[in-house]
Amino acid sequence: MLHAEDKLPTENAESPRFVDHSLLIAPEFPCTWPTEPFPRFQLTHERVIGPTSAYNVDVLMIDGNTGTQLDVPPHSAARPELKREKSGPFGLAYTDVIEPWQFGGEACVVDVRDLLDKAPNGVSPLVTSDFVKAFEKKHRPVKFGDVVLFRSDFSDKYYRPLPEGGRFLPDILDRKAPGYPDPDPDCMEYLGQKGVLTLGTDSASMGPLPDLAEPTHYAGLKYGMIWTEGATALGDIPETGAFYCILAPKHRGGPYSESRAFSIVGGDVPQRLIEAVKHKRAIDLSPTLEFGAPLTNPGVATGEHRQVYLKIDFLYNDYLDMWHHTHLMDSMTGTNLVPPSYALPPESETPAYSPVVRGWLEDYEKKYGPRGHSSMTAEKVPLSWTCGPTRVIDVSHLVGSTEPGTWPKSPEITITEIERYEDRYGKLNPGDIVLFKTGFLADHFSEGAKGLWTDPLRGDKEGWPSPGPDVVHFLKKRGIRCLASDAPDLGGVEPRRALMTYWALGTQEMVGVQFLQNFENIPKDAYFLFAALKIRDCHGTPGRAIVLY
Question: How far apart are CA 338 and CA 140, in angstroms?
Fold first, then answer.
């Protein structure tokens, strides 16, 4: 298992430490619900760096019950118009509706390790409210703004590659092994009445087997709770004081979602973020994922398009009038992470580029030195690289600065823009997250793929502002690890400059976060949080971005 713990570039005794609570998603792990008809996780390397592609391009088939996951109320609460016993307003609180402040809070780690394996085969030992009360006696009462985490170390012990990993879930369902510890309905009622809205467990599910899974789910979800299932490494954070967060792709109408969970420990950052959550000071920066939205690059020539976002229904729930579903999508759908390996080959390979790309590489290396190599896929990117203080650089004035005769062309964000920003707002600091505010997604997302992607790529209108390699090298000298943009991508519409920008990012061991929104609402001193799904060997991964302030 991989438990990444890392610190910001300006590491010292008071620097925040990031603890990854997410299970690694890979085909040989028990990362999906194992019963029929739930689909298995699939990662397809659709294109690799070589004669026909300058990038590594991946396609995912992944459903919301994969790896570490987020449950929200419609998992058990019915929609109001169904007029059923479990109907209520929270039956509409899907993953795209939950307010971003609810994703985080102060971690309150409730130790239930004494229950691990203390039950018959196929049966879950029950976490009663007495465990929470014992925590409260030792520390303080739990309340709104807390994230109550049930720690049994179940995932730490049993999440392993198959067949050994069958102990994580399949062996329990087949009654060959004791179940995982989980709270009973009364425990959920107790927490709901205390105002706690966010929970987590390091068990495979929040539902005790064999008969209390649904009663426990509904007992909490009817209060509007959300929770993490399949967390791990909960013993790596203190019982109180850490900031815990779960971030998930923003699927339209999702009753659950594949997710990334982590904590921040040390320094003053955790308490600042905890206070922000308590006061509901949060902004969601990710557009909603839904079929028909312009979420992926349609390409210019025939056959260049990325896999469109598809929702695939596979199991109907009559009571909830809801289809369980999986998603087929390009791995850089919507808000996404650009790791170094997106445009760089691994250390041992010399790619056979096309003649055109070989010419671009010669030009790049004459000016910037050797293009690098990297095996840093998405799961290897430290969480500290994509979280930090926000520095929003407004470059929207560049829109309209190119001549139609030069299109397809993107206005270039230059070093001059950075220096002007620093003259006005102060120097950039190591660990800052640089956000380029272009306004492009806000202005053109509603126009669909044609207005957002196709017209700029084909030169029928100006492209979105984007940085060139010079800016990347300049920002690396400032200690910046992550660039983000509210444009479709960081490369822009000119293939040569786009590739050079991504080569520079990877060679400088920097990452990008693309396809964001709502930059105009970000206040000063906000803190950026982005986490991509922890998928092994993926060269660009979807995720969710928020800011707390």
Answer: 41
Kindly state the average pLDDT of the residues 421-444.
98
Tens of pLDDT, residues 157-183: 999 999 999 999 999 999 999 999 999
Residue 243 to residue 275: CA distance in whole angstroms: 10
Average pLDDT over residues 312-324: 97
In the structure encoding, which two tokens stand for residue 85, read together? 């016993």
Beta bridge partners of 310: 328
Using H for helix, E for strand and C for coil, what is the string for 314-362?
A: EEEECCCCEEEEEEEEECCCCCEEECHHHCCCCCCCCCCCCHHHHHHHH
pLDDT in tens, 48-100: 999 999 999 999 999 999 999 999 999 999 999 999 999 999 999 999 999 99
Residue 281 in contact with residue 539, Cβ under 8 Å?
A: no
* Helices and strands (H, E) in the chain, number of each type: 13, 26
For residue 276, what are the CA distances in angstroms to 243, 259, 271, 405, 525?
A: 11, 22, 9, 48, 12
Q: Environment class of residue 540 by beta-carbon count within 10 Å: exposed (0-12), middle (13-18) or buried (19+)? A: buried
**d(C-alpha 376, C-alpha 276), whole Å:** 33
Model confidence pTM above 0.90: yes
Q: Which residue has the tokens 């056979």?
A: 352
How many CB atoms within 10 Å of residue 5?
Answer: 17
β-sheet bridge partners, residue 313: 325
Give the pLDDT confidence score for residue 58 in this predicted structure.
98
> Angle at the Cα of 486 (from 294 to 301), degrees rounded to 5?
40
Residue 15's pLDDT is 82
Contact 497, 463 (CB under 8 A): no
Residue 392: pLDDT over 50: yes
